Amino acid sequence: MAFSALRNARQLLLLAAIFVAGAYLQATGLLTNILKYSGEIVFLSGQHLELVAISSAIAICTGIPLGILLTRESFRAYANVVTQIINIGTTIPTLAILAIAMTIFGPGVLSALCGLVAHTILPVMLNTVAGLSSVPKHLIEAARGMGMTPRQILVRVEIPNALFVIFAGIQTALTINVGTVPLAFLIGGGGLGELIFTGISLMDPGMLLAGAVATALLAVLVDFAIGQCQYWLVPRGVNPLR
Amino acid sequence: MIQLDRLTKVFGEIMAVDNVTMEIPSGAVCVLLGPSGCGKTTTMKMVNRLIPPTSGKIYLDGRDTSGVDEVTLRRSIGYVIQQIGLFPNKTVEDNICVVPDLLGWDRKKARSRAADLLKMVNLDPAVFLRRYPKELSGGQQQRVGVVRALAADPPILLMDEPFGAIDPINREVIQDEFMKLQAELKKTIVFVSHDIDEAVKMASHIAIFREGRLVQYDSPNDILARPVDAFIAEFVGSDRTLKRLRLVKVADAMMRDPPRVRAEDTLDTASKLMEEHGHLSIVMVGPRGRARGVVRRDVARAKEGGVAEHQEPLPGVVNVADDLRTAVSAMFTHGVTWLACVDDDGFYKGYVTQRSIAQALGATYRD
Fold first, then answer.
1. At the fourth CATH level, which superfamily is domain A40-238?
2. Which of B71, B82, B133 sits opposite A237 (nearest CB)?
3. I need a surface site. Which of A194, B126, B166, B222 has the fewest CB within 10 A?
């Protein structure tokens, strides 16, 4: 209950902030300046979202299986080592990863995706491990005792019960991801970074804001979309929001 | 029927179960009892191979289970654990249908079975089928846990301290419900417990373990009346004779065909009857034989007239189907040394006295 109240408050605050920012932009005449770039905003947002979609799809499709693998009986011993390695990967600044990726793959989308995936995978994997480890042992014993195979236990018991936590990881990861994509522009990856960094170089606040506000709105939208998925896809019995 | 043949389990250096041989007949409720770490749970879990035996064999209805695939084996054996283990992501209905679904039953058939099972434990299917486990009380969850184990109608049920986590009042209720269910279903049940009272109440057979060994395997009455050694005597408690009160029915300890008088008889008749039997009081019955009141000998001697006007209300009656514990408790409650015994319709069937109870309990010591 407290959890969902907090969420509601957060969403209200966000709306208020957007309203105030809009009023301010209109008053200073920046809004018309920004709207000048509406064509670019639409096009680059598409590119931006494409990068987000591809990189997070890769991150989710590797992070979740990796998390599952690390919680299996036979791999549990390696869980710490793998987590540490991925942890180190995350401590390296994004820009540095992008730079390293560029030296290997050359400038372009591929390098950008590498950097983004490296940063998105950790929260997904860690939350998968945390979610699966928090499934009570007696549930697994009951499932085993009733004659479920290890795969059935995973699919019918473990994953549904860990799903809420896994979704929380995806939500964090994607919000970070959307905010990191602008850096991809620096190595020729495209996205809304183009407006932001060009705006900085040209000292054009309208252009700069066009990129920044659009990025912020995308982050909010993605967060909301994942939140909705979490709300509707996690079974009611294990969903504290419902 | 479950046969354990020289069953042994070694964990590293520790002999968890040491050469246990026993036979549990079909329809029996066998309670495995003992202090913690005595091997009772390990023994039970070897039956569905949650723990693989180090050596020894288990036969279910004469069939050696070591040749059966463990998943197939487990699906044919009901399993209830102390923590209940209902899956929180599934509704009550889907929880009950877990094993039928695993076995590939027709969905409709499995769902209607779930509704029938809920009715058997007095939960309204219309209310509970769609609920999630978190929306049930502890007692309701445990009822669902038990019927879930029964869903695919397995001949054998393994229960690991199933009522251990329930508060004492609800535990009694659920135990009684379960006994009624078992009287109907006649499953072969292996039941792990550390509670001697629960064992005496539920079991047809009790197996007491100590340090991995099966020390005594007997009927509850024999365990209480003739413990084989000091360990068992201490384990079942110094009040073990009192515990046996629960195992003997009033019908088995009462004096049958008791003398009685009717309302229209005279006190003189009553007095003579009492002297003849050496009784201090006599029960007055109604026209069809229901116990109605009592006439005391001193009153019958001192006064004259009919029984009807000098009778007193009965100090307490006990049903012939009750156990002696109830009878003794009623005696102490009413401060009397005897009780009239009636059947379900209130007909006077006999009486129990403190002496007859002592004799009923003593009989097994002497034979």
1. MetI-like (1.10.3720.10)
2. B133
3. B126
